[in-house]
Amino acid sequence: MTFKSFLVIASLAVSVLIGLVLGRGSGGGAQAATSGPKVVKIGLSLDTLKEARWAKDRDAFLARAKELNAEVIVLSANSDDTRQVADVESLITSKVDVIVIVPHDGKAMAKGVEVAGRAGIPVIAYDRIITDSNLDLYMTFDNEHVGELQAKYILDKLSTTKPIRLVRIHGSKTDNNALLFKSGQDKALKDAIASGAVQVVHEDWADDWKPENAKRVMNAAITKNGHNIDAVLVTNDGTAGGAIQALKEEGMAGKVVVTGQDAELVAVQRIVGGEQSMSIYKPVKALATRAAEVAVALATGKPVVAKAELNNGKREVPMILLDVVTVTKDNVDSTVVKDGFHTRQEIDGKP
Ligand code: GAL
Fold first, then answer.
1. What average pLDDT values come out for the chain (351 residues) when binned by 10 residues?
2. For ligand 1, what atom is nearest to the CA of residue 140?
3. Does pTM top 0.70 for this prediction?
4. Ligand 1: does its nearest atom lie under 6 Å from the Cβ of 208?
5. Strands, E, within 35-122: which ranges?
6. Atom 9 of ligand 1, residue of closest alpha carbon
């Protein structure tokens, strides 16, 4: 029985029982039975290590894999799709048992899933989905909820007496998450935009999540609207940094509400300092730890429970979803500090 047919039967059976159970039947277990504990080999293919969060994901994943006696090969593609497909092919050549991918481009990496599939190697999409492919599992945060919380923050923060003049800076179009963040924001803003309580005075995408691209969008917004801007709904901390740079050059930093995501250290420092208003904390340690456990489970024929699913254009992909938390200057200690994501010393810039 191939791994894929086992998954389909297993997931069909369980979906009747509310929730999906996944298992792997292609021999991993058997090998484990005959030759003692098999050292599981995991391939971890990253888009980039440009944003601070990905190094934290990688380190937490490696730490848990080590505890589980698994070997991990980590490759980072520096946001190059051709290179990332080549990375997956080299992981297959290295005879890994399972591959975990953070795709730069969710469409481009369908090829990676297909070549792994032909080699009988299951693929887990980490944080960002891979579309149009027989993906085995998707593990991520509630990305729509991220967008809702960002937009709701602005609606709660700013008065309703006069229209809120809003600039929107979306993420990278190659990243399906950017579409999910936007759709969560759209949902939360719908009525306010319809009633005129919110006026979107400028809107654009920051290619590759690059801060310099976000700065360019913010400059264009200021050129068009002058200082008549009340808030910037910007999707992650890296791009928020770019937008705030533009605001600073105009003496507007700290006077305009600015959102973010990832609770990067520099962003939390900006929040404490007042230049940025909020961020979204995503407990990446929890996601990465869980992903290492699930990867080992798939490789050794142990069942994996995924209570949700997402259609990736080819199939209903079983999905494991973790929730997120809004961080403001009022709850830094009870969120990112309490969780050990940053220390108070680090935030205060003390050695
Ligand atoms: C998204 C991710 C965010 C942010 C962004 C840029 O896919 O969910 O947390 O980091 O990529 O890397």
1. 50 48 46 68 96 96 98 97 98 98 98 98 98 97 98 90 94 96 98 96 97 98 98 98 98 98 98 98 98 97 94 97 97 97 94 72
2. 8
3. yes
4. no
5. 41-46, 71-76, 98-101
6. 262
